[in-house]
Amino acid sequence: MKTTDLIKQMVRIPSVSSDKNRVNECAAFITRYLRKKRLHVAMERTNGYTVVFASNTGSRQCDILFNAHIDVVPGERTQFAVRETRGKLTGRGVLDCKGHVAVVMNLLARARASVSVGAIFTCDEEIGGLTTKYMVGKGYGGKLVIVLDGNMDRVTIAQKGILSLKLIARGMACHSSAPWRGQNAIDNLITGYLKVKKLFPMVNEKRSWRNTLAATIVSGGSVANQVPDRAEMVLNARFTEKTRPQELLRKIRAVSGLRVQRIMVSPFFYVQENNPLVRHFLSSMKQRLNPGIRIGRMNGATDARHFSGAAKAIVITGLKGGGAHSDHEWLLIRSVDRLENALYEFITSDWNNRP
Question: Are 101 and 13 spatial neighbours (Cβ–Cβ below 8 Å)?
């Protein structure tokens, strides 16, 4: 099956991270396809998810291990049908990350047994990637891990850490017609949030490698005519190598005047640029894919962080597209064959010439 047809079929499955039945339906589709291609396929079950591992040798340890995730963020029903216009595919997950999943599936089908190649198709990257962490703990790994969840113009070797937390404000309820008789928890929450926001620098597209903060969920109040006594806000902070998350959390608690609950911390991820496998992969991609491809850093997070310590090198790259998590997610069709063929040449020709 053509790789673009695989993408279209998988996008039809609304495998939102929280819908484990649909995620497992996508895993079952991948399993059937790869078994028909006579690949070794194993399924591991954890926390209600079915995680697929496939390889051309059957070993949990490979020379080259690919990683791509099959879960997506929520979207409207219409987004789960791929539209093809002007050389682009649009739809939920075409870029993040089912386009990459399809590339890996057909790469495995083409790979020669002289190089051991495998892939982990993980199920919950959008909500933390614990299925990837589980698979690493089960002994799956590779000398070089290639995470397909990035950008075709870069070989990414660094990504920011994540600090997810909740601000909780208290107040005193009263009738909204006499707000002076109470204390509005929403007001307290806003005041505390604005103090926290001052801890973070201004950022823009050209100066983005800095700590960032985004308010992502806000709740407070239950009826229109009552001053609320409780309000909450979830914050998502991203931090660079210059920041210790424990110190950042301490500062947030000190300035906010609110109760601060830590939800999750994910460490900063980095691979040395002069790593021989990183340099070899970059050289191959310059020759096979794009002479202008460069080493890069990533504001977002991928499952790459879970492979730290389980591989000699980890790189992140991907297809050409944009609009991930938006209503206009798109993928450049011609980039699909370009990336697949470049990676195929790396596996079959360039890998054996590594330093």
Answer: no
Together in a domain, 152 and 177 = no
Q: pLDDT tens-digit profile of 175-195? A: 999 999 999 999 999 999 999
Same structural domain for residues 18 and 152?
yes
Q: Is residue 147 located within the same domain as residue 43? A: yes
pLDDT at 59: 94
Same domain, 167 and 205: yes
CA separation, residue 340 to residues 3, 83, 117, 254 (Å): 9, 21, 14, 50
User: What pLDDT, on the 0 to 100 scale, is given for residue 192?
Assistant: 99
| pTM of the predicted structure, to 2 decimals | 0.90
Shared domain check, 114 and 32: yes
Beta bridge partners of 146: 66, 315
Q: Cβ(199)–Cβ(149) under 8 Å?
A: no
- The pLDDT of residue 313 is 97
Whether the bond into 62 is cis, omega within 30 of 0: no
Name the residue range of residue 202's domain: 161-266
pLDDT at 96: 97
| Residues 150, 66 share a domain | yes
Same domain, 201 and 255: yes
Q: What is the model's pLDDT at position 133?
A: 96
Q: How far apart are CA 322 and CA 95, in angstroms?
A: 7
Q: Quick one: 81 and 152 in the same domain?
A: yes
Spatial neighbors of 264 by CB under 8 A, at least 6 apart, are 128, 162, 163, 164
What residues of the chain score a pLDDT lower than 70? Answer: none
Last residue of a domain, one of 250, 266, 282: 266
